[in-house]
């Protein structure tokens, strides 16, 4: 079976992808600098699958460390998750994001080229669509970003597309994620944000566990079902399975494909909150705040291409996403240790 290098493989989405890869029979090598994750994730992957992935504590900015990984292993394809990912931080520290997410990625692509590894699945984002003119969002929409984080995703898409244009033997899958939430049903893997969470569901989880007093809802006067912002939330296990389908496709086809990974359904902030109340069995306090600048009313995916090209479709609904998030929160009050 093929060997897959997973950059950022101890992180939230990366660790779930490692589980699905191993359970699908792939050999997995994980590379991570542990900036925003923990090596303990590898033990959790082993608990679920019975196999502990080979691990390199290496940074993408370490060119020699990257070359070593490719020299010591026969790698068939790469799934590239590694990168800084906080929108607000990217606005405050753009140089940090460009150096890490662009320079680091270029180092990875150069190491791949030198080793003759020409198959990559890249972790992109729906942020490349900016404020869409309509929903659902399909892959042929114009792309334009509103923050440095999104710009690094779009620049990586452009770099990889140019590499594949110069060498038609490359296979590049650019997966544009919508909003991953939830956790592995075992309760062994899930999202552990540093500090106060930026994202909705980890924030609700902290309210449910008593660590935060109430949820702040940014605006309730949008043209949506209940006035609160609507997003396409996707279970992280569904998202991980999408990568398995993408790797299988990349191993058999050349060229570049841009593919949305979402459910095709939008859920409002209050709908997510009420689903979480159902999961944890109690009412959760919230306060309506002023709209945040830059927020958009509604954003969800057209998922037809993923289904047609990869044979992949999300299976879980919002109730399962919140159930698994709460299960992980209960079992891991101090995160993954």
Annotated CATH topology of the domain at 3-184 and 233-263 and 301-314 = Rossmann fold
Question: How much helix is in the residues?
Answer: 40-55%
Mass-distribution shape: globular
End-to-end Cα distance, whole Å, is 31 Å
Full CATH superfamily name of the domain at 3-184 and 233-263 and 301-314: NAD(P)-binding Rossmann-like Domain
Count of DSSP H/I helices: 11
Strand content: 15-25%
- Strand arrangement within the widest β-sheet reads 3-2-1-4-5-6-11
Largest sheet features = 7 strands, parallel
Could you characterize what this model shows?
With 337 residues, the chain is α/β, with parallel strands linked by helices. The protein has a domain at 3-184 and 233-263 and 301-314: 3-Layer(aba) Sandwich (Rossmann fold). 41% of the residues lie in helices and 18% in strands. The chain has helices at 12-23, 40-49, 63-72, 87-92, 94-115, 148-166, 200-208, 236-252, 269-280, 304-310, 318-331, and strands at 3-7, 27-32, 54-57, 77-80, 119-125, 171-177, 179-181, 215-218, 230-231, 233-235, 255-261, 267-268, 286-289, 298-299. The strands form 4 sheets. The protein has a 7-stranded parallel beta sheet with strand order 3-2-1-4-5-6-11, with helices on both faces. A 3-stranded mixed beta sheet has the order 12-9-14. Strands 7-10 form a two-stranded parallel ribbon. Helix 2 (40-49) links the parallel strand 2 (27-32) and strand 3 (54-57). Helix 5 runs parallel beside helix 6 (148-166) and helix 7 (200-208) packs parallel to helix 9. It is globular and about 55 Å long. The two termini are 31 Å apart.
């Amino acid at each position: 079976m093929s060997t897959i290098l997973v950059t950022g493989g101890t992180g939230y989405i990366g660790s779930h992808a490692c589980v699905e890869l191993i359970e699908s029979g792939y050999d997995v090598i994980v590379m991570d600098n542990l900036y925003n994750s923990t090596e303990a994730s590898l033990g959790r992957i082993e608990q679920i699958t019975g196999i502990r992935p080979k691990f390199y504590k290496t940074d993408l900015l370490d060119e020699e460390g990257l070359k070593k990984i490719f020299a010591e292993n026969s790698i068939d394809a790469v799934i590239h998750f590694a990168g800084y990912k906080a929108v607000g931080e990217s606005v405050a520290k753009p140089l940090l994001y460009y150096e890490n997410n662009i320079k680091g990625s270029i180092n990875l692509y150069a190491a791949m080229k030198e080793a003759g590894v020409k198959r990559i699945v890249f972790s992109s984002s729906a942020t490349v669509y900016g404020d869409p003119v309509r929903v659902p969002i399909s892959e042929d929409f114009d792309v334009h970003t509103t923050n440095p984080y999104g710009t690094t995703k779009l620049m990586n898409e452009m770099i990889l597309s140019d590499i594949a244009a110069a060498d038609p033997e490359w296979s590049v899958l650019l997966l544009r994620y919508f909003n991953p939430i939830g956790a592995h049903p075992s309760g062994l893997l899930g999202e552990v944000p540093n500090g106060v969470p930026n994202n909705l569901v980890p924030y609700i989880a902290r309210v449910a566990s008593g660590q935060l007093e109430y949820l702040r809802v940014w605006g309730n006067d949008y043209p949506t079902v209940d006035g609160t912002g609507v997003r396409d939330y996707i279970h992280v296990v569904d998202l991980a399975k999408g990568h398995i389908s993408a790797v299988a496709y990349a191993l058999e086809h050349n060229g570049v494909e841009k593919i949305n990974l979402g459910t095709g359904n939008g859920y409002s902030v209050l709908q997510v909150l009420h689903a979480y109340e159902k999961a944890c069995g109690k009412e959760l306090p919230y306060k309506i705040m002023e709209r945040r600048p830059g927020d958009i009313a509604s954003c969800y995916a057209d998922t037809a291409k993923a289904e047609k090209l990869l044979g992949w479709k999300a299976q879980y609904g919002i109730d399962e996403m919140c159930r698994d998030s709460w299960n992980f929160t209960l079992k891991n009050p101090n995160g993954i240790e």
